[in-house]
């Protein structure tokens, strides 16, 4: 099985104003999964994000800060037509302790090439001012996360 990684649109840093703010990002590309295994035992597309951590590594946002909307469309590009993979239909926090399943193809399905599309502003950050810090000189402190994707047999 193969999948093609993709990137997000970089947004402007939000101006902290003392209230909880939501920042959204959109994905530039579709997720592509190519399953040409003879076993045809299905697959799952899963994701997990590391906690938001400051560039100086001293500050950490709590879990359940990074949310991902469900995939809006799955299109089969090639392969034997069959039962379509199942989309998990809910927004989910992805910065917890375990991988979250986004799409699942059961046995006898998922063979071929599939394109998956996220809706606009699918990646959402909920920034609580209690955890957002600036440098001592008042300049913004950058935060980062790693989003890890995997495709596993079902």
UniProtKB/TrEMBL annotation:
Residues 20-150 form the WxL domain. It holds the Pfam family WxL. It comes from the Bacteria. InterPro entries: WxL_dom (IPR027994). This is WxL domain-containing protein.
């Amino acid at each position: 099985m193969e999948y093609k990684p993709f990137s997000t649109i970089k947004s402007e840093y939000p101006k902290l104003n003392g209230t909880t703010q939501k920042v959204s990002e959109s994905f530039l590309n579709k997720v592509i999964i190519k399953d040409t295994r003879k076993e045809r035992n299905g697959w799952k597309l899963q994701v997990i994000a590391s906690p938001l951590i400051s560039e100086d590594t001293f500050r950490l946002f709590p879990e359940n800060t990074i949310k991902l909307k469900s995939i809006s469309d799955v299109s089969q590009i090639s392969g034997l037509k069959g039962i379509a993979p199942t989309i998990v239909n809910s927004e989910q926090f992805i910065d917890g302790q375990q991988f979250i399943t986004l799409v699942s193809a059961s046995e006898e399905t998922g063979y071929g090439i599939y394109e998956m599309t996220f809706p606009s502003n699918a990646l959402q950050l909920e920034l609580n001012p209690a955890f957002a810090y600036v440098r001592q000189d008042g300049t913004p402190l950058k935060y980062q996360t790693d989003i890890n994707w995997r495709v596993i047999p079902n």
